[in-house]
Amino acid sequence: MHYILRQYWVNETDDKIKPYVILGGGPELFVTLMLLWLIFITKLGPNIMAERKQFVLRKTLMVYNLMLVVINAYFVCTAVKWLDYGFKPWFDRLPARNQWSDKAVAEIPDKIIYFYTKLIDLFDTIFFVLRKKSNQITFLHVYHHFITPVLAYMALKLCPQTIILKGVCFGNSIVHTVMYSYYLLSAFGPWIQPYLWWKRYITRIQLLQFVIYGVTILIAIYYGLHTDYPIALQWLATWQPFIFFYMFYRFYVNSYNKEKVQ
């Protein structure tokens, strides 16, 4: 158990990733952060807020959402460079652990920062708790915000050169740039709501994103490229686009279609 829970992660972490906080060494700090987040949003936070007045946080949310718009727009541009402006092959073999190009080494700091931004995204749910917006804390929301940093953590520790990380960063950052732009505008108040008719298209973009990821994974499986990856990451990552597509599709139908899913 000690090997599975700690030593495996220490041994398999790429040497170039080990100096970074949270990602170096064992998973204890990362697991602790994620568990504390889960405990706060599901039990501790709602109990604390039960007899308290909700926080408004309007200015805080505007600053937070503006920051994430800028961050995600930056990573759209950065991921385009990682992907050689669309010319990088998507179905190459995963490079061996000791085969690092100068370009790949130069990409590491931005990849680490991208991982940290997935932890910043966890504040979405914390703000929902503080504003007593429990209807927003759905299983889809919690699952999505939990599994994304988990996958990023595993990918950076075990295979930081993977093209999958670059592709996901590109697609996810596009979606988040649009999504946090919507959140930023909606924080201005009721007067702007008539201009935010495009909310449903955010979910459509997300669905398209998962279709692309799913097709990419199926092609990789067909050519046997998935076997380059650690077995735990293979099983966890392979199913996510299909799980997410199903959950987001259900959300879209229940939110925007007149005929609800039975």
TrEMBL record:
Keyword hit for Transmembrane: yes
Example of a GO cellular component annotation carried by this entry: endoplasmic reticulum membrane
Enzyme class: transferase
Highest taxon above the source species: Eukaryota
UniProt subcellular location: Membrane
InterPro entries per UniProt: ELO_CS, ELO_fam
Gene Ontology molecular-function annotations: fatty acid elongase activity
Catalysed reactions, semicolon-separated: a very-long-chain acyl-CoA + malonyl-CoA + H(+) = a very-long-chain 3-oxoacyl-CoA + CO2 + CoA
Record EC number: 2.3.1.199
Keywords assigned by UniProt, alphabetized: Fatty acid biosynthesis, Fatty acid metabolism, Lipid biosynthesis, Lipid metabolism, Membrane, Transferase, Transmembrane, Transmembrane helix
Pfam families per UniProt: ELO
PANTHER family: ELONGATION OF VERY LONG CHAIN FATTY ACIDS PROTEIN 7, FATTY ACID ACYL TRANSFERASE-RELATED
Protein family (similarity comment): Belongs to the ELO family.
Name of the protein in its database record: Elongation of very long chain fatty acids protein
Source species: Medioppia subpectinata
